[in-house]
Write a structure and sequence with these properties.
The protein is 86% helix and 0% strand. The protein is mainly alpha-helical.
Length: 100
């Protein structure tokens, strides 16, 4: 792998632009009160609904693939996505229970 000065410059330019945009987003959000309790509650509930719908969709896809194709590649891909979903949920519950 050939790392040139252009590659390094592009990396630092991209990182700098990303950090600048992140700073401006939070600065404007603070000014318009985007990060108050109501905003946090709405987005927490939206994430919960989204994860629940994803869980139901993956479960339906998993069962359909198992019945239609049997244990083939698509079945294992959906199963791995389902497992990642549940493991990430479980780990976040453990972390948040310790913090709260």
């Amino acid at each position: 792998m050939d790392i040139s000065i252009d590659t390094i410059a592009g990396f630092f330019t991209g990182a700098g632009v990303s950090l600048l945009l992140l700073y401006l987003y939070f600065r404007k959000g603070k000014k318009y009160r985007r990060f108050d309790e109501r905003y946090e509650r709405i987005h927490t509930l939206a994430r919960n609904v989204s994860w629940s719908l994803t869980l139901v969709t993956l479960t339906a896809m998993w069962i359909t693939l198992l019945l239609m194709e049997g244990p083939k590649l698509a079945f294992y891909l959906v199963l791995s996505a389902y497992i990642v979903l549940l493991l990430s949920y479980m780990s976040s519950v453990f972390i948040l229970n310790r913090k709260l």
